[in-house]
Design goal:
With 70 residues, this protein is α+β, with helices and mostly antiparallel strands. The protein has one domain (2-69). Helices cover 17% and strands 50% of the residues. The chain contains one helix and four strands. It has one helix spanning 2-13; strands at 18-27, 39-45, 48-54, 59-69.
């Protein structure tokens, strides 16, 4: 589920012709299945993007992705 959210956010926020080639993720708290949305934030850092996944109360996961054109 987390990767699905990340892939969707990458396409919406960074570009439709970009895909994830590497991902490192640290899980903090399980996503609440009753939630219909999550917040995902990106910050570019030396060719990688740092990200956080959260809902309105908790930080659920954080990590980094490497992206490539396809």
């Amino acid at each position: 589920v987390y990767i699905d959210f990340l892939e969707t956010a990458v396409k919406r926020e960074i570009g439709k012709s970009i895909r994830i080639s590497e991902v490192k993720i640290q899980y903090f708290k399980e996503l609440n299945p009753a939630k219909l949305w999550v917040n995902i934030g990106f910050k570019k850092n030396e060719g990688r993007y740092l990200f956080v996944i959260s809902d309105d109360h908790d930080l659920n996961a954080a990590g980094e992705v490497v992206l490539e054109d396809f």
